[in-house]
Design brief:
The complex is a heterodimer of chains A (568) and B (156). With 568 residues, chain A is an alpha+beta fold. Chain A contains 23 helices and nine strands. Classes of the chains: A alpha+beta (568), B alpha/beta (156).
Chain lengths: 568, 156
């Protein structure tokens, strides 16, 4: 009995400590995952608590469970519309990119550790995939808002590249143990992993999404049902011989992109579950490692990590993205730099242990060291790199709080709460605000009392305003309540003047005395900028033309609706 | 070409009747045509309104900077209007506008055009400047403030 109580005590306090320590991350800029990992190591056999945990198969099971939950949440959070710009490059990175990275790291590892080629490649495959959670907790934690092309590519890449790394690892492990037949068998294995993963994931996800939307449940049950359905898809796919990780990500994607009020119950819970998985996973992995053994391979493993960060990842990104997609150089560099490794490599490193490969602890320790280095070097410099390579887009004001009213099942009205921070709104009567016609100020709070807003009510700084409106009113509302500091930032980025995307180029040329080539005469500004940017434009793309910086400042779907003019 | 030289005291207008965006631009066109005989008020108006059609020049914070090129002006011309009451200008942030800085440039002066626009924007982007301009109680005060800010900006 005591063992159970001890488990509660140690497990609970470790979790609580991890969550408290997450505050440290934002204060000191230490990557969060590193803190969890460090806490696990501190609690472990050579740390303060001296907890001995060597149960690889249990860690393996926890790893699967946690990864599945993290991927499900990742899918739920990925908006299908970001696929417009991010899907193809991400797919290229997630397949060929992983392959190239693994191969390069493999050859280098073979040379450093004096391994056979298959053993070397196994090291490469284990550290081949980037970690969605690592990348995104890092980015959103620092308030970095990437431009959509870079953000979407990284997000979709990290969600979809695990199956490839898992496949390569499994294949190489079987090759080493001698379970695998010829190349045909390998190819069949590959096809079934991805084919079944794709079909069951999309199909199961679609059915789950329909079911969740159709059912009328107690609010708390939606998230649990989504989780249960996700796990079922994962299990079914794996039983059939497909990649469960791919399937559960796709299922999440299907569920998350089926609009409806159920999503409002699902998303917050899954956010928490993903955090729980992160913390649990990293704590367990930190417990599992033996720091002194890690120390023994520190130098060679460090070399492998450096090779991954500075040679393999950049080369893979360069080869798979640059020739085929319209990425700028600085965007390509940023993507190359943000190849963060997280939990996946460490979980994958347990595969050889479970599979009974000889010298299996080497893989585990190397993977562990690589992840540590990657989190430290790449994770630690992420914000700096984003600024330096100018892949950031400023975010304006968003409502302090928003929530659905829950009245209409589709396209529901929401309540948006804003604070008045914009000095220029001070003393402005409400009727003079350019309010979107479908929206309404329902209440105004000042000095802890509620006022009944009328057209003649004058706003004051510090007022809190509740607006009822639809999500399509958000753009104008955000603009309206934009604080001075944010507005300044936006203006510095997007320029002072804004032109409509539908404006004719010849009129613009006339207004500013610009020369157009004959083909450009009949274009709208949107078409012109899209042509100059090339490929899929995203907010933040800029074009230098006639001494003016033309910056895409707003888009709807794939169309440019506003263009900023930054003057020098 | 500095702003100060193109904004003589008589073109800093205080307490201009507002009404609507169109009315204000009309008011300025008539005024400038009287001030500078070579300009035609109809022509100035249609150029300014033509520019507004491409996207409002209301840059936010209650400020608008209408601007256009005109074949009939020989040197850049500026005018400043403080409106009696704020008007709807389709501004980027939706705020009503009460500070209007108009710029007209000759057709050949394209680089000057952009640099002048940049200067005006820099001055009007300053929250403190805007607040002081709004608080100005007379044409004299307004003029002094504006000149001081323009000088401050040119020397810095």
């Amino acid at each position: 009995m005591d063992a159970i109580y001890m488990f509660f005590l140690v497990g609970g306090s470790l979790m609580a400590l991890s969550i408290l320590a997450s505050r440290l991350s934002s204060m000191m800029g230490v990557p969060l995952l590193l803190i969890f990992l460090g806490l696990g190591m501190l609690a472990g056999e050579e740390g303060v608590l001296g907890v001995v945990f060597d149960d690889y198969s249990m860690a393996f099971a926890i790893g699967h469970l946690a990864l599945a939950m993290i991927l499900l949440d990742g899918g739920l959070r990925t908006r299908l519309k970001t696929f417009r710009v991010g899907f193809k490059p991400a797919l290229s990175l997630a397949t060929f990119g992983v392959f190239i990275t693994s191969a390069i790291v493999g050859v280098i590892a073979m040379w450093i550790f004096d391994l056979t080629i298959v053993q070397g490649l196994l090291v490469g495959a284990i550290v081949g995939s980037t970690d969605a959670a690592a990348v995104f907790s890092m980015l959103s934690g620092r308030g970095v808002n990437l431009n959509e092309r870079v953000g979407a590519t990284l997000e979709i890449e990290s969600g979809t590249n695990d199956p490839m790394a898992i496949f390569l690892t499994l294949m190489l492990v079987e090759l080493l143990v001698g379970d695998i037949g010829g190349p045909t068998e390998t190819l069949l294995f590959f096809i079934s992993q991805f084919g079944i993963g794709l079909i069951v994931g999309l199909g199961g996800g679609w059915l789950s999404a329909k079911l969740l939307r159709w059912l009328d449940l107690a609010p708390g049950l939606y998230a649990m049902l989504a989780l249960a359905l996700g796990f079922s898809v994962f299990g079914l796919t794996s039983v059939l011989g497909g990649s469960g990780f791919l399937a559960i990500y796709l299922a999440g994607l299907m569920i998350g992109n089926q609009p409806g009020r159920h999503l409002n119950f699902i998303l917050p819970v899954h956010d928490g579950l993903a955090w729980l998985s992160q913390i649990g996973l990293f704590l367990v992995l930190g417990l599992l490692v033996t720091p002194s053994e890690l120390w023994d391979v520190a130098l060679p493993a460090g070399l492998v990590a450096l090779a991954l960060i500075f040679i393999a990842r950049p080369l893979a990104v360069l080869i798979t993205i640059k020739p085929f997609f319209k990425f700028r150089w600085r965007e390509t560099f940023f993507i190359a730099w943000v190849g963060l490794r997280g939990a996946v490599p460490i979980v994958l490193a347990i595969f050889p242990v479970i599979g009974g490969v000889e010298n299996a602890s080497l893989y585990f320790n190397v993977a562990f060291a690589v992840v540590l280095m990657s989190l430290l070097i790449q994770g630690g410099s992420l914000t700096l790199m984003a600024k330096w390579l100018k892949v950031e887009v400023p975010v304006g004001t968003v409502p302090n709080r928003r929530g659905p009213l829950g009245i209409l099942p589709e396209n529901d009205f929401e309540l948006f709460v804003y604070g008045v921070e914009n000095q220029d709104l001070e003393d402005v009567p409400i009727r003079l605000l350019r309010f979107p016609s479908g929206a309404l100020i329902s209440a105004l709070f000042r000095n802890h009392t509620m006022l009944h807003p009328k057209g003649s009510t004058r706003l004051k700084l510090g007022d809190v305003i509740c607006v009822i409106g639809r999500s399509e009113d958000l753009y104008s509302l955000n603009r309206l309540f934009n604080g001075d500091a944010k507005l300044k930032q936006e203006r510095a980025f997007f320029g002072t003047f804004t032109l409509d995307g539908s404006a004719q180029m010849q009129d613009i040329a006339q207004a500013y005395g610009l020369t157009l080539s004959p083909g450009e005469q009949n274009m709208t500004l949107a078409e012109f900028i899209a042509l100059r940017v090339g490929g899929h434009p995203v907010v933040g793309d800029d074009v230098d033309w006639h001494g003016i910086h033309w910056v895409v400042s707003d888009m709807e779907g794939g169309k440019i609706t506003r263009v900023g003019l930054r003057l020098y | 070409m500095t702003l100060e030289t193109i904004l003589p005291p008589e073109r800093v207008l205080f307490d201009v009747p507002g009404g609507s965006k169109k009315r204000v631009l009309e008011f300025f066109s008539t005024f400038i045509a009287q001030n500078i005989p070579s300009l035609d008020s109809q022509e100035v108006f249609s150029r300014l309104i033509g520019r507004e059609r491409l996207g409002s020049t209301g840059i936010g914070n209650g400020v608008a900077i209408p601007h256009a090129r005109s074949p009939h002006c020989s040197a850049p011309i500026a005018g400043f209007l403080k409106l009696a009451e704020a008007i709807d200008f389709d501004a980027i942030d939706g705020d009503p506008v009460d500070l209007v800085f108009v710029l007209l440039v000759p057709e050949e002066a394209d680089d000057t055009h952009l640099s002048l626009l940049g200067q005006v924007a820099t001055i009007m982007n300053d929250a403190d400047t805007r607040q002081k301009l709004r608080k100005a109680g007379s044409q004299r005060e307004l003029l002094e403030l504006l000149t001081a800010k323009i000088r401050e900006q040119t020397t810095s």
